[in-house]
Amino acid sequence: MRFIRNIYLTNRPFWIIAVAVICFCAGFSLPFMMYVGQAILILLVVTIILDIFLLHHTSTRVQATRSMSNVLSLSDENWVHIDITSKSRLPLHITIIDELPYQLQKRDFKVELDISPNKHIRVDYPIRPYVRGAYAFGHIMLFISNRLKLAERRIVAGEPQSTPVYPSIIQMRAYELKTMQSISFFAGVKKMKRIGHSYEFDQIKQYVRGDDIRHINWKATGRTANLMVNHYEEERSQQIFSIIDKSRSMRMPFNDLSLMDYAINTTLTISNIAMKKEDRVGLITFSDAIETTLHPDKHPRQLRKIMEALYNEKERYTESNFELLYQFSRSFIRVRSLVFLFTNFESLYAIERVVGILRKLNKLHLLVVVFFENAEITDYGHSEAANLEEVYLTTIADKFSVEKQQILKELLKYGIQTIVTRPEDLSINTINKYLELKSRGLI
Hints:
Elements: H1 2-5, E1 7-9, H2 12-26, H3 32-55, E2 62-67, E3 72-73, E4 78-86, E5 92-98, E6 111-115, E7 120-127, E8 133-137, E9 140-145, E10 151-157, E11 161-166, H4 169-180, E12 200-206, H5 218-224, E13 228-233, E14 239-245, E15 253-254, E16 257-258, H6 259-276, E17 280-286, E18 290-297, H7 300-311, H8 322-332, E19 338-342, H9 348-364, E20 366-372, H10 375-381, H11 388-413, E21 417-421, H12 426-439
Parallel strand pairs: 3-11, 14-17, 14-19, 19-20, 20-21
Antiparallel strand pairs: 1-10, 2-4, 4-7, 5-6, 5-9, 8-11, 9-10, 12-13, 15-16, 17-18
Helix pairs in contact: 2-3, 4-6, 6-7, 6-12, 8-9, 10-11
């Protein structure tokens, strides 16, 4: 039974049968055509039997293995490699069907190729996952045929494997490289000049021309009879917190990725960059309750903890409780920190409800409120209207865009740092804000 289940006929035998049927029909007026049709059918059956025998001969062996990264990156192109090895004496035509995870919703994947005897071929194809979680790959189905292409033999190769999809590691590495090298000509990455002074004491040293006279240590000068100054080094190990709103306002999708997933990718990226600059990073997620919390740390294992925590986050259908967030942050965040709050406001009413709490939070810490511009509505509002109905719709779209700007002005009025960004530009705008605040010495 297994032998029969692995045999498939191609389209060619059916076309040949159609020709034989035509010959039989013509045989009513031309009797010799009946014999032609019979000869075609007999030859077809014999050829198919020979073809199946050659495909199942012990000398016809084909192997396939799948390889990929141990961890896939959310919303990025991840490459999957299939290695095909033919140990057959005959050239073969192979159709490859890989059993992809259901999350990809790709049901028409197929690769066709020709392979010479005793050759090895690698097939590479990209996948772009848009949902975090475990992705289960099944077997690799190989349908092999020879030059006749009358029958195909199915070979089940490869082993099922499960691979987790984590927040965008590729994006994290890319921005780390750009930021650490201070390459200013990359789009959006700015090199900021450090201004102001730092007050983390290092040592007392003898005065040299160019030292700030305001740092002269008169007591040390009196004891040594030489002009001495206090020397300070740049402050490090500052606390950076990422707070992610998991409420229903963050479920809105853009380019197949939810706003919360954009925030998760950016959180991983900014945490990595802050740790490279020797800052301590922490994490809070909330909705109607406080969910995940991680105390700030700069040890390399902290990034792994953040990655694992973000991997398991799920959006919720509830409203966000900013009052609870403020009460919790007073006890959890013990020193003044830079706080990135990733949330979303769609109306003035939404910001009026929480602006008082954000002002209190801003007094305790340096708060940066990050919310999203509705890119699709903005683009639609700038489009040309062809009729009265489209004029009405574009006017409504412009109204929503204006409300976003009013929300921005409302936050800036109270001195709250704010980022309004398209979802696809979230990471680069957040990095720029972090570098700007560091350069200005505000944290």
